[in-house]
Amino acid sequence: MNPFKSSLYWRLLVWFCVVNLLVLVLGGFLTRRFIEYTTAVEIDWSALAQSADAAYEQGGVAGLGDWSIRQRHDGVQATLYQDGQPLHPIRLPPSIMQSLPAMLAADRDVVLRPWRGGGVYVAVQPVTGADGRLRQLVAVSRSHTRLRPQTREKILLGVQLLLSLLFIGLVGWRVARSVAKPVQALRDATRRMTAGELSARVNHPGGGRRDELAQLAGDFDAMAERIEALVTHDRRVLQDLSHELRSPLARLHLILDLAQRSDAPTEAGRYFLQAEHEIVRLDRMAGEMLALSRLEGGLPGMQCEPVALEALLRQCAQRAQVEAQARDVRVRVDASEPACVQGSAMLLERALDNLVGNAIKFSPAGGEVVLALDSADGQASVSVRDHGPGVPPQELEQLFRPFYRGSNAARAEGHGLGLAIVRRVARVHGGTVGASNAEGGGLRVCLQLPLAAGAVAD
Questions:
Q1: Starting at the edge strand that comes first in sequence, how are the strands of the sheet with 134-141 ordered?
Q2: Confidence (pLDDT) at 79
Q3: Keywords, A to Z (predicted)?
Q4: Closest by alpha carbon to 179, among 210, 203, 204, 213?
Q5: Do 445 and 371 belong to one domain?
Q6: Vertex 230, ends 229 and 235: CA angle to 5°?
Q7: CA-based torsion, 349, 354, 359, 360: positive or negative
Q8: Residue 11: which domain range?
């Protein structure tokens, strides 16, 4: 995952930048105020002027230069002026250089701050030397106290360090709280699900946030909902299967018991044939239940591919010929035009086999089963029509329910799962299925599926 696309990354970056900006601004401000108002030792400008004059008289310009270097270490830029000219060079801001002649001409003590809140002091202090000549101390200091630059830097560093710890602690607490809240909600929901409470949800903690944690909470809720649906479905399928298997197993137990009590081998052989028939029915029912379970769970296990329905219908009709001939039923394919859908050929084949098998079972001897294919308005329509007894109108909607067998179920064997599988296959492919009584008798089941994108009927 690209971190630059992470909203959580940008959130942390913004908070980090805000903290650093606050530390720089407040650190400088508080340091200056600390130096201004908490240092009790103020500069004695008169004593500083006497000291500068003594250094000049003893060592001349060189002595005054050494003295200026020592003062600079204490945070004061200072020199002596005589007759309006500096005895040793000094670097002053341009604005102070412009107003300095007027301050020198005033011939009095001057201590001022040119910029309000700027933290710069300018002092002009007259002093009379031992030779009787008038000189003037010109000094500039960033504070009203004698403080070495190294000391000032240490104070600034200390203040910034304290502010950094304070702000990082506050911001870290806030960020950790915003992260820990959804994580704790996820942990609680996970523990509840582990304990068997499948309805546990996170419910997107954090309001309207859309960062990775909120997305994770949403994914967890979707996963939990999916798991709950699958487990609920599996439980229902297991209950239905256990209910449906009870009768065949009871018959199988009775048949085997009768075979065991039989005296004649021929009689026992007949019971064993019945037992084999029941076992085949059980095996078929279990297979259909497993297929329905996979479809209901949305796990077809197949990849989508283009499927030609006309070829699929003809293959289905060919496979059904053996059973149809045994019942004296004719199977005919009426495909007016080819149609192609996107889906699983295996699942669609299973659905069509179920429809055709049902139609053959309920068709009378000499009857006909018609498989028709048509397409219109982006939909392919596959209908399977028989000429059997049909279905009472009130039962049409119930035909596709698992294990439902209508009033005509006694005419053919089955478990009530075939049409339920057909409906689920249709839903997996984005289609629908419905049943209606055809004109002239018989039942017509119509399976509608969306045509594949770009599919053109020839």
A1: 85-86, 76-82, 134-141, 121-128, 110-112
A2: 93
A3: Kinase, Membrane, Phosphoprotein, Transferase, Transmembrane, Transmembrane helix, Two-component regulatory system
A4: 213
A5: yes
A6: 100
A7: positive
A8: 3-36+152-189
To which residue do tokens 């908490």 refer?
38
Give yes or no for residue 299 having a pLDDT over 60. Answer: no
User: What tokens were used for 230?
Assistant: 């699958």
- The partner residues of 112 in beta bridges, in order of sequence, read 122
Residue 196 lies in a domain: no
CA distance 43 to 75: 11
Residue after which a domain boundary falls, among 127, 146, 165: 146
Question: Within 13 Å and on the Cβ side, how many CA atoms surround 283?
Answer: 6
Q: What DSSP string runs through 63-81?
A: HHHHHHHHHHHTTEEEEEE
Shared-domain flag, residues 24 and 159: yes
Which burial class, exposed, middle or buried, applies to 2 when counting CB atoms under 10 A from its CB (0-12, 13-18, 19+)? exposed
pLDDT in tens, 118-164: 557 788 889 988 888 889 999 888 654 445 556 666 666 676 677 67
DSSP state of 144: S
> Which tokens belong to 88?
């040793």
Confidence of residue 421 (pLDDT cuts 50, 70, 90): confident
Q: Give the separation between CA 449 and CA 47, rounded to whole angstroms.
A: 103
- Rounded to the nearest angstrom, the gap between the alpha carbon of residue 34 and the centroid of all alpha carbons in its chain is 49
Q: How far apart are CA 76 and CA 155, in angstroms?
A: 17
Opening angle at CA 169, ends 167 and 175, nearest 5: 100
- As a 3-state breakdown, the chain gives helix, strand, coil percent values, each rounded to 5, of 55, 15, 25
Strands 76-82 and 85-86: antiparallel
142: DSSP letter: S
Q: How far apart are CA 48 and CA 63, in angstroms?
A: 15
Pair 161, 244 in one domain: no
Rounded to whole angstroms, the Cα distance separating 378 from 356 reads 24
Separation of alpha carbons 345 and 352, rounded Å: 10
